[in-house]
Design brief:
alpha+beta; Nucleotidyltransferase, domain 5; 8-stranded mixed sheet; 17 helices
């Protein structure tokens, strides 16, 4: 009999508290889930532990996709490489000057963050390119070599080459990078034209500097991970989830690690798209609440907004990213009192080590998880990820200092902690909905992550959202998204055109040239031509404006007038008005997508008795009092059977809370739908 070959697709997402894994068997259409504690000191150890928990050999894996936070954490914690920068003479201070603005406009004491690359590690070289790509002064290679010799490069250093207007002509940057590699072949080197070939020097230089900052760390991690996976028998490509909602090969992630900074949250959004397509829910607000933070995203008509206007920490990062808003409110977020004895929650988190006080791993601060345990929404003695037993007495003890200062009983304090955490998440959702011209009442809240389903109904009530969908396996939803995400590469080109003057033919010609190159790159990575799709978009503005808006250009747009109309519609929705003035294109963008086979998740068998799904009754705190509450095993809830709140639904990896005013039912695929009565 012929060996059928590897059958599993595996996705692993490393979070701040837990590492989640999902395996899908293409032959049997079955799904396996695993959750293990994260190991911040050695993240690859948790990845291997997650594979062991799935009970899958490496040789049985056909495709391995990984969502990571290595680069993100390094930037936020200041643990990156020592970066040296080579710049055009006269432009040594671009990162120091930045945009000359203050983070807090009316606070004269506010200081700009220190640049990723200080002036003392910036060297100038002789060359000059004009805005149109013409060479005003040729590259002086002898002086370049002298500048390279002046760099004091340690074993973990990195070099970034950032020359003026290199987006229009990258030749000088690439030659300088080649000379650096000749002199220091062991050093990580990147160029701004490869990282971000767009105008605006500060944003391009800073994004490239961030890429160099995390390059050596990412390279070491991926090499170690590949070595460990090979030791378990996996010999195929390792794919990495990227910020744009797609995946890339590990080789590309090594060259462009800055593209992975929203790697984990992007997986959840990709899974939400799949869920929306399967259920017919086209407007979703996603809410991914984990142990450290909550990530929210708005999906309108199954379209995910991708932006190039994000920051990480205080640093500009202009690589394409799903428009995700993150707030420091997770299960491990710490409750504290400010100078006025006002209760606050987050952004500081107990993380994976020591974790919430109830974990019994040394944590002494009260967290959101401790509060939910005190309210009996979590069961004392139950085990998270099969390892961590929850201890209610420890949670109560951690709240004692706050109780003494506030004069509150432990139950009232715990409820206050949860309400404040919910308020912070609601604020984050308002920023991506109401602030962008969307009415959240027109959307369904899709909540997941280990702590998401526990707070979903409360968030929906505050936003006046009447419907919530909780996907099957919510605690592993981001990992599921990573294994079903398409391969994606984004390409950009700064080129200024006025549609009314140039006509559509020239616009289409620029796109076609970019698409030809993008398709060739994807085919070189092994993607068959028939599986490649391309999406177009433009950075546009009214003539005379300083900043542009991203405008999608679907296939039906076939004229300059249609391009203008698409821009007017985006501007009107964003700002509430449109102008009759001329428009201008400043940036052409394409997303080249290599399609992967979709998942065919099995439907749940019909029938069953809802009463048999009740595992216990527990007194759970709602609205100032404990109420007798049924606790259901989610896996035993029959499809379409109605659950009336108050209720608690438990499963491996997550707990769902239905307040008294809510009801719920499971659809045919096991997704839990909550509705306000």
């Amino acid at each position: 009999m012929q060996d059928p070959g590897p059958a599993f697709r595996v996705g692993v997402d490393v979070g701040g508290t837990f590492t989640d894994a999902v395996a899908y068997d293409d032959e049997t259409r079955s799904v396996r889930y695993a959750k293990v504690p994260s190991t911040p000191g050695d993240p690859a150890e948790a990845v291997v532990a997650a594979l062991e928990a799935l009970d899958i050999e490496g040789s049985d894996i056909d495709r391995f996709v990984h969502g990571i936070t290595i680069g993100t954490n390094a930037i936020l914690e200041g643990r990156g490489a020592e970066v040296w920068m080579l710049v055009t003479r006269g432009f040594r201070d671009v990162l120091d000057i930045a945009r000359t603005n203050r983070a807090t406009l009316y606070d004269i004491t506010t200081l700009k963050p220190l640049p990723i690359v200080p002036r003392s590690r910036t060297a100038e070289i002789d060359e000059r390119i004009m805005f149109d790509g013409s060479v005003l002064a040729p590259l002086d290679e002898d002086r370049v070599r002298a500048a390279i010799d002046s760099l004091s490069l340690g074993p973990d250093a990195a070099v970034v080459v950032c020359l003026l207007h290199s987006y229009a002509f990258p030749g000088h940057e690439r030659r300088v990078a080649a000379l650096v590699r000749e002199a220091h072949p062991e050093v990580f080197v990147c160029t701004s034209s490869d990282v971000l070939p767009q105008f605006r020097e500060y944003e391009r230089f800073n994004t490239a500097a961030l890429n160099a900052y995390i390059g050596p760390l990412m390279n070491r991690y991926l090499s170690d991970l590949e070595h460990r996976l090979q030791g378990r028998g996996y010999g195929r490509n390792v794919f990495i989830m990227t910020s744009n909602g797609g995946v890339s090969t590990a080789g590309r992630a090594r060259r462009l690690p800055i593209a992975t900074v929203l790697s984990g949250p992007a997986g959840g959004v990709a899974a939400a798209l799949h869920l929306g397509s399967r259920t017919g829910i086209r407007n979703l607000i996603t809410c991914d609440m984990g142990g450290t933070s909550t990530d929210v995203c708005l999906i309108s008509d199954l379209h995910v907004p991708v932006t190039g206007e994000q920051t990480i920490g205080s640093y500009a990062n202009r690589t394409p990213q799903i428009e995700i808003n993150t707030v420091g409110a997770g299960g491990g977020s710490i409750a504290w009192l400010d100078a006025g004895d006002i209760l606050a929650v987050g952004p500081r988190s107990a993380g994976a080590a020591p974790g919430p006080a109830c974990y019994g791993k040394g944590g002494t601060d009260a967290t959101v998880t401790d509060a939910n345990l005190v309210l009996n929404r979590l069961k004392s003695g139950s085990r998270l990820a099969g390892h961590i037993a929850l201890d209610r007495d420890r949670a109560v003890a951690a709240m004692a200092p706050l109780m003494d200062r506030l004069g509150l009983e432990v139950d009232a304090l715990a409820e206050g902690i949860v309400r404040i955490a919910v308020a912070r998440m609601v604020s984050a959702i308002k920023q991506i909905s109401i602030a962008k011209g969307f009415d959240p009442r027109d959307f369904v809240l899709c909540s997941y992550g280990g702590a998401g389903p526990m707070h979903a109904a409360s968030i929906a009530e505050e936003m006046d959202i009447s419907r919530v969908v909780l996907p099957r396996g919510p605690g592993n939803f981001a990992a599921l998204g990573s294994l079903i995400s398409d391969i994606r590469q984004d390409h950009a080109l700064t080129k200024t055109l006025q549609p009314a003057r140039t006509g559509y033919a020239e616009i289409d010609g620029v796109f076609r040239s970019m698409e030809e190159e993008g398709r060739a790159q994807l085919q070189a990575e092994g993607v068959a031509p028939e599986h490649i799709a391309v999406r177009r978009s433009l950075g546009m503005r009214y003539l005379g404006q300083s900043w542009e808006l991203d405008v999608d250009i679907p296939d039906e747009v076939q004229s300059a007038e249609a391009v203008d109309a698409a821009f007017h519609a985006v501007h009107d929705r964003r700002f509430g008005h449109r102008s009759a003035g001329a428009t201008e294109i400043v940036t052409f963008r394409i997303a080249v997508i290599g399609r992967v086979a979709p998942l065919a998740l099995p439907a749940l068998p019909g029938g069953g008795d809802l009463a048999a799904a009740v595992v216990e009754r527990r007194r759970v705190y709602f609205d100032g009092a404990f109420r007798d509450t049924p606790v259901y095993d989610r896996g035993r809830i029959p499809p379409e059977a109605a659950i009336e709140g108050p209720a608690v639904v438990e499963e491996a990896g997550a707990t769902t809370v239905l307040p008294p005013a809510w009801r719920g039912y499971a659809n045919g695929h096991g997704d839990l739908i909550l509705e306000r009565r």
